[in-house]
Amino acid sequence: MNIYEQEKALLEGLAANDTNAIETIYRENYTTIQAYIVKNNGYPEDARDIFQEAMIVLFEKAKLSSFVLSCQIKTYLYSVSRRLWLKKLQQKNRYNPAIEVLKETVPVEDQMEAHEKMNADFNLMEKALLKIGEPCKSLLEAYYIQKKSMPEIADAFGYTNADNAKTQKYKCLVRLKKIFFAQYKNGD
Amino acid sequence: MEDSLLFDAIERYRNGEMSQQEKTFFEELRKNNPEIDQFAAEHNFFLGELEKISEIKAYRHNLNEIENKLTNEGVISGKDAKGKAKIVHLWNRYRRTIAVAASIAGIVSISTATIVSMYSEKKKADVVTPLVDHKLNQFERKLNQIEHKVNEASSLPAANVPSKPKFEANFRATGFLVDGSGYLITNAHVINNAKNIIVENIKGDQFSAKPVYVNPTTDLAVLKITDTSFKKVITLPYTFAKSSAELGEHIFTLGYPREEVVYGEGYLSAKSGYFGDTTSYQVSISVNPGNSGGPVVNKNGDIIGIISSKETNADGVVFAIKSKNIYTALDEVKKDEEIKLPTINSLKGLEREQQIKKLEDFVYMVKGN
């Protein structure tokens, strides 16, 4: 396998949320990013956050059906991290240092916009989930996020049968949807 | 409960759990019923969002697990940099702050230094008094006027004697000839801002003069007598010392702290002047305002300096500009004027009284307004 194929396989693994693929990418790239951030006015803790965020951006990109690998993973991660870190520095209102560019970068602006949109949606959904309260939250999470089956859920939540659980889930979903769309339309 | 059924249908459709028949029916229903279609689209989008979020949640969970694992393995260092790396880090982090602090410190120290030096300069001006007499008293002025009148009256019969211009001076100091053809040296502060300058010799003859050289830094000025009535002197009896004078040397001076020439004597007390100024000497001599510009003569009749100022709060601390500076000043004057320094010292070996007699003819009172 040449590098291109290796990386393609890694990204496919990443899109499928494969632990081994994620770990490999982590191992190969984390040190560089941390070095960059520590060199530019940051702490190792900052580096962790930034790297995770960059990994999520990569994940989103890898999941796109139109995804084509146009550069090496390390270049991409580096470019994204740099962009994220610059933004964070601006927000923190620290002295904006003359950011040192250690390596070549690729333009990531489009991806960043999509990422910010996704982050907003994510937060919206989280907020909505918090608002519907328990047991709705746990119920919906168990079904939609943990992908548990209805009988399992009925068992765990103490419903007499799966149908009752399903009715409850339906009620919860309607509420969640209402809250989500209300916020969504407000652009909140 | 129709909504509930619809929800269920949409979910099953999304997850591909429907049979072919059911699927066709459902698609048909959506096609024919725009309301249901819109509802389905909305719900589909919502489920998409929910799924996306759940995926990312799962992924984040994975990331955290891996991060923890790698931290335990030491691949990710969880701690802050230590030792040298820490210093480098801190430096990188705070170098701007440090730079700003350093600049402020720099500015503060420079301005402090400036203020201090300004203050001390001011102090110098307070502490050292130039020996020019600006307080020609009423009595003396009256005397001058009477003298003039008497002169005028006595000179009336002799019509060809040129009458002196009536002149009211507001300062008085001393100067002495450096060239017999009519060049005098005095202090720059003496003639400072003076419009008219009159020099008067011991006989009372007055001549108007103009400055040909003024240097406030060395505090030296050279005057040229412009009156034609001035009779040139062929040789001056004194010379200017080129080498440095010795501590304890006996010196004397002639000057005009009054309308009459006054003799004073003393000794050389230091080889530098006020605040370590190496261009002057400190001499111990009794002088008063009006003595500025007077020659400081050693026992051989060499002029070693020019009286310039005294310390205000101390007795007998007088400063005299070294004669070396006279050479420098005259070298400058030589560029424009024909000037020749005296080379023969005929005061050497004479008694003090004899020296004074020979010298006093060439020491002039400098007045002006």
Please provide a written account of the structure.
The complex is a heterodimer of chains A (188) and B (369). Chain A has 188 residues and is mostly helical. In chain A, 75% of the residues lie in helices and 0% in strands. In chain A, helix 1 packs across helix 2 (19-39), helix 2 crosses helix 3 (44-63) and helix 5 (109-132) packs across helix 8. The longest helix of chain A is centred in the last third of the chain and has 25 residues, at 162-186. Chain B is an alpha+beta fold and 369 residues long. Mean pLDDT of chain B is 82; it is low at 158-163. The chains are: A mainly alpha (188), B alpha+beta (369). At the A-B interface, helix 2, helix 3, helix 5, helix 6 and helix 8 of A face helix 1, helix 3 and helix 4 of B.
Summarize this entry quickly:
With 188 residues, chain A is mainly alpha-helical. Chain A has helices at 3-15, 19-39, 44-63, 73-92, 109-132, 136-145, 150-157, 162-186. The longest helix of chain B is centred in the N-terminal third of the chain and has 45 residues, at 83-127.
- The total count of strands of chain A amounts to 0
Question: How much β-strand is present in the residues of chain B?
Answer: 15-25%
Indicate the percent of residues in helices of chain A. Answer: over 70%
Helix content of chain B: 40-55%
Mean pLDDT of chain A equals 80
Estimate the global geometry of chain B from the Cα principal axes.
rod-shaped
